[in-house]
């Protein structure tokens, strides 16, 4: 399995810090989207308590903020697993079996896309091209890309990451 680089760590949820981040974009067109991205980059998800806060900062109803966060699947509403696994669903990877690989990874982790394994170790997401098509099928774990992934390779990698995290 070919591997490229990086791991993500998130801060624990902090409503005041989220408010500070959001306030920077209060006067910008589309500021709520930028704020949501910034909050997710920082904490790994957008906590329920952010809905009312974002409504005040951007002068929107709670329902409007909720509508934006649920329309865009990129925004997680729950604390992510220790690692985020993204499986490429774009054409080159599909041609090399990413659909079958995805089903096996879902079954191994016991979760669908946008969910987290029961042990809290892995969140699963779809991604559309990681720029490593020559080594399809590809996955990304946090910021590290792995090419020519097989289910056996994935299981071994997942086991080693869980041991590393203990
Ligand atoms: S299609 Fe999967 S990396 Fe490009």
Question: Which structural traits does this protein have?
Answer:
166 residues; alpha+beta; Glutaredoxin; 2 domains; 6-stranded mixed β-sheet; 7 helices; 6 strands; elongated; binds FE2/S2 (inorganic) cluster
Task: Outline the structure in words.
With 166 residues, this protein is an alpha+beta fold. The chain has two domains: 15-71, no CATH class; 80-165, Glutaredoxin. Helix content is 44%, strand content 14%. It is built from seven helices and six strands; from the N terminus they run βααααβααββββα. Strands 1-6-5-2-4-3 form a six-stranded mixed β-sheet, covered by helices on one side. α1 packs antiparallel against α2 (31-43). The longest helix has 15 residues, at 151-165. The structure holds FE2/S2 (inorganic) cluster (FES). The site of FE2/S2 (inorganic) cluster has 11 residues, from α5.
Beta-strand fraction estimate? 5-15%
Please write the string of helix (H) and strand (E) elements.
EHHHHEHHEEEEH
Give the strand line-up of the largest sheet: 1-6-5-2-4-3
Bound molecules: FE2/S2 (inorganic) cluster
Mean pLDDT: 92
Quick one: how many beta strands?
Answer: 6
Helix fraction, binned, reads 40-55%
Looking at CATH, the homologous superfamily of the largest domain is Glutaredoxin
Largest sheet: 6 strands, mixed
Shape by Cα distribution: elongated
CATH class of the largest domain: Alpha Beta
Number of H/I helices = 7
Compute the CA-based radius of gyration: 17 Å
From the structure provided, what is the oligomeric state, counting identical versus distinct chains? single chain
Span between termini: 24 Å
Unreliable runs, pLDDT <50, ≥5 residues? none
């Amino acid at each position: 399995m070919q591997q490229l680089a990086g791991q993500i760590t998130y801060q624990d949820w902090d409503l005041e810090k989220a408010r500070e981040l959001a306030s920077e974009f209060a006067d910008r067109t589309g500021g709520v989207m930028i704020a949501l991205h910034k909050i997710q980059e920082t904490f790994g998800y957008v906590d329920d308590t952010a809905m009312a806060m974002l409504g005040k900062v951007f002068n929107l109803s709670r329902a409007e903020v909720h509508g934006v966060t649920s329309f865009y699947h990129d925004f997680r509403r729950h604390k992510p697993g220790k690692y985020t696994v993204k499986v490429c669903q774009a054409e080159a990877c599909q041609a090399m079996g990413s659909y079958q690989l995805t089903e096996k990874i879902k079954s191994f982790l016991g979760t669908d896309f946008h969910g987290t394994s029961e042990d809290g170790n892995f969140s699963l997401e779809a991604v559309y091209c990681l720029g490593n098509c020559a080594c399809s099928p590809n996955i990304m774990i946090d910021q590290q890309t792995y090419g020519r992934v097989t289910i056996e390779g994935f299981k071994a990698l997942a086991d080693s990451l869980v041991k590393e995290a203990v």
